[in-house]
Write a structure and sequence with these properties.
The chain has 461 residues and is an alpha+beta fold. It is built from eight helices and 21 strands. A hairpin with a 6-residue loop joins strand 10 (208-210) and strand 11 (217-218). The protein is globular, with a radius of gyration of 25 Å.
């Protein structure tokens, strides 16, 4: 096939450099084609790879001998005139998923089930129970490691695809493509991973300049320098509610500091794919983590939460900026969110779906926190130590569903002679001890100065 015949929706192998600095030819889909000064560029999404790897490539990186042309779907009329349904079959809600239970299901542990905990050299068998699904609420970014998860806490596989075949609407095509080339934030230059709805006139710039303290964006370095002579902020607006060493947390009200909150959401959307951006930040609080030096408080990451959540969400969106990832800050943000829940006297869970990196961070935090509790239990009167899921939830402020899913994920829980037994193998214990030695950043509850507000009594926030 000739270069000119390759169009949107076509799939073909594309040359890319992998993490080992080796050339490979993964299958990719053409999402867009543009012509610059007679030179064609193709925006490709690598199938089964995260969308953050999508990029513009030249024709010499395309394997034009193995092009797969998209097939046109035949429209099958139904009694409702909707395509895709078989005549005579009952209409199905595409959002519902049929769950097939195993022939001999193992009963799932309840929050009051007592489990005996004891170490064992062998690894425990995993007891998996089908859990009923719940309707998922749309996550709101103005309102989300670094990370797609079901509502009941049982993790599902991250959504990788950015295919155009399923939905060819113009708006959808636009939002599937990165529109900002580079962002300069303080001493860092960031390469965005995903689309963010910055003003259209900014999307053609080679670099978008942001004030690192108020997050206002400008067209050029000169605009930024002129702004800095007038901007007197040296930390995020709002109240500093935590400080230990160089780490501080600021609480920002989305209603009182609307401009900053909206700018924060625009920046965060560059690195979060599975969130919807709304400009109504009034119902949300933002907790911004910063690092302090002689120039001021520099943003490291943040999480947002609803002022009133009917589903026990203690985090709506969470992000560690790329320069600070893989340094323990993501887990520190998660730990801080649960410290706030402890002060509020509630259990909490993050809003779903989590990003792929967020899911990894939460799994790791839940595992380490729960294992820390289990390994600290002591036997009484010669009997094995016992603890309920309710008690774990109350101690950690982790929601019960997340406790259960973590125990199952770690392969710790057995159902034996009518009771649940948690088996801590030597591998689990040694792995946990190694992980805790590396976890140097921890939240000190004594440094937290936070008074929760009852938003239900404060009118419209």
């Amino acid at each position: 096939m000739a270069e000119g015949e390759v169009s949107e929706g076509c799939r073909l192998p594309v040359l890319r450099r992998n993490q080992d600095n080796e050339d490979e030819w993964p299958l990719a889909e053409i999402l867009s084609v543009k012509d610059i000064s007679g030179r064609k560029l193709f925006y490709v999404h690598y199938i089964d790879f995260n969308k953050r790897l999508d990029e513009w490539v030249t024709h010499n990186r395309l394997d034009l001998k193995r092009v797969q042309v998209p097939r046109k779907e035949a429209k099958t009329p139904t009694k409702n005139g909707l395509p895709g349904s078989r005549p005579g079959s009952p209409d199905r809600d595409p959002r519902k998923v049929e769950v097939v239970s195993p022939a001999t299901p193992v009963p799932a542990p309840t929050e009051t089930s007592q489990a005996s905990v004891f170490p064992q050299n062998g690894s425990a068998r995993r007891a998996v129970a089908a859990q009923p699904g719940r309707k998922r609420k749309s996550a709101c970014l103005g309102t989300d490691e670094d990370s797609q998860d079901s509502s009941d806490g049982a993790p599902s596989a991250p959504r990788m695809t950015g295919s155009l075949v399923s939905d060819r609407s113009h708006d959808d095509i636009v939002t599937r493509m990165k529109n900002i080339e580079c962002i300069e934030l303080g001493r860092h230059r960031l390469k965005p991973w995903y689309f963010s709805p910055y003003p259209q006139e900014l999307t053609g710039l080679p670099v978008l300049y942001l004030c690192e303290f108020c997050l206002k964006y400008g067209h050029s370095l000169r605009c930024l320098q002129r702004h800095l002579t007038k901007c007197d902020l040296r930390h995020p607006p709002g109240n500093e509610i935590y400080r230990k060493g160089t780490i501080s947390f600021f609480e920002i009200d989305g209603r009182k500091n609307k401009s900053y909150s909206q700018n924060l959401c625009l920046l965060a959307k560059c690195f979060l794919d599975h969130k919807t951006l709304y400009y109504d930040t009034d119902p949300f609080l933002f907790y911004v983590m910063t690092e302090y030096d002689c120039k001021g408080f520099h943003i490291v990451g943040y999480f947002s939460k609803e002022k009133e959540s009917t589903e026990d969400y203690n985090v709506a969106c969470i992000l560690t900026l790329p320069p600070y990832q893989r340094r323990g800050y993501g887990k520190l943000l998660i730990e801080f969110s649960y410290e706030l829940s402890k002060v509020e006297g509630k259990t909490g869970t993050p809003e779903k779906p989590l990003s792929d990196l967020g899911l990894l961070s939460y799994r790791s935090y839940w595992s380490q926190t729960i294992l820390e509790i289990l390994m600290g239990l002591k036997a009484e009167a010669g009997e094995r130590p016992q603890i309920t899921i309710n008690e774990i939830s109350e101690i950690t402020s982790i929601k019960k569903e997340d406790v259960i899913s973590t125990l199952q994920y770690l392969n710790l829980i057995n159902y034996y002679k009518g009771q649940y037994i948690l088996t801590l193998s030597e591998d689990i214990v040694e792995g946990h001890e190694r992980a805790m030695l590396k976890r140097l950043l921890r939240i000190d509850a004594k440094c937290l100065h936070f008074t929760p507000k009852d938003w239900s009594k404060r009118g419209k926030w």
